[in-house]
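Now read this:
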Amino acid sequence: MTDNEWDEYAGGWDTNRSTTVYANCAFAELLKITELAALSVFDFGCGTGLLSERMSPEISHIVALDSSAKMIERLKQKALPNVFPIAEFLTGDLIRRNSLMHQKFDLITASSVCAFLPDYKADLSLLRSILKPKPTIAAIAAPARAAGMTLAISCDMVIAADDVDLSYPEVAVGVIPAMHFVHLPRQIGRHKAFELLFTGDTITAPEAERRGLVNYAVTRASPRQSARVWRQVRRHVARGHPIGPRCVHAGQRFRIPPRYRKHSGYHLQHHFDRRFPRRPQRLQREASAKLVICV
């Protein structure tokens, strides 16, 4: 590793009040929204591993990545038994050649590293590639702006505290909100999306819920209500067949041949049967579900 601009901060990272408070708050929020036991975690932009250190007693194993060799050196000195540090940038090559990255992770944690990514869209795609194929639920506990908002609505479901606000403020500084032009119109429709992008207006979480950007706006002052919503969502998602969410996602990407686009689900099934006549029955059922969802 060559020298990294973050190396100079490694010495005082663990004693910095801001970083320790952040790690404590992040860990407390994780405990509220999910059960950590037996999960595999990828701690992206881990620094000296303050969050990994707190998660370690609760979690099966953690792969902790940071581009700063000095930060990772500090983490290694802690000798956490189930934390495996890597001092590299996140790249497709790293995922292919490092055996620690060959697995799929249950959970990915990332903090301010997202603000320093050179290619946000490419890195987000890499992160999705190492995440186990299951529904993703975003939790918004602080004001969400620009890329932070896009990251949230890119998930399958969004739950937000009712006292946070959300916006796409790029228009105020003359920046083209390129990423948002992809995700936002798909979520709330072209006209409503352009209203937010062209005005840069800030909206509250309850208003975002009414517009379809957020599934639930929950009361922060009532942890029990928030926990109840989380449990309800997870219970309903878990009730379905394991391949269900994968079929939904695949259905969104499936390209229907032009001659079948105006036909019924029966004709689409017929097309599938002709194209994949020798597929195992289980895979055929799975792929058939993709077609049904597309219709």
Notes: The chain has a mean pLDDT of 77. The CA atoms of residues 11 and 74 lie 8 Å apart. The longest strand covers residues 61-66.
